[in-house]
Amino acid sequence: MTKGKFKERYKDKHETVKEYMSFVANSLIDKYSEIPDNFIISLDLLATNLEIMVKSSEEISKDNGMVDKDKYHGQKKSAPLQTYFQAQGYVNNILSNFGLTPMSKSKMKQNTQEINVDDFLQNLTA
After folding, report:
1. Contacts (Cβ under 8 Å, ≥6 apart) of 101
2. Which of 3, 11, 21, 94 shows the smallest number of beta carbons within 10 Å?
3. Which distant-in-sequence residues (6+ apart) come within 8 Å of 92 by Cβ?
4. Could you report the per-residue pLDDT of 8-63, keeping only the tens digit for each?
5. Domain ranges of the chain
6. CA–CA separation, 9 vs 112, rounded Å?
7. pTM for the full model?
């Protein structure tokens, strides 16, 4: 998928989501020279969950905040806050799978370094 088609796909999303998806597209294009078609569903899930996070954040800001009263007049997390955290978990998983989190990037670097060391040791003993 080209970058133009990618932008068109997410034109109805919140501005923050569009900006972040543009960053993701650039990262994938740098890595693969285009966005592979088999990534599209995962990218759609990412955009949807980012949109849910933005909307939940707006709900938290304009409503009663992060806490609701339960039936016993105690406090519990508000529904938008729970939704926000759930979407955040999905976003983090998807970004990790694409190698776009600091932790996943460092793991990828470690894996490539280990492979290079193994190859080096095999060449020494051969």
Report:
1. 92, 95
2. 11
3. 101
4. 899 999 999 999 999 888 888 888 888 888 899 999 999 999 999 999 999 888 86
5. 3-52+89-125
6. 34
7. 0.72
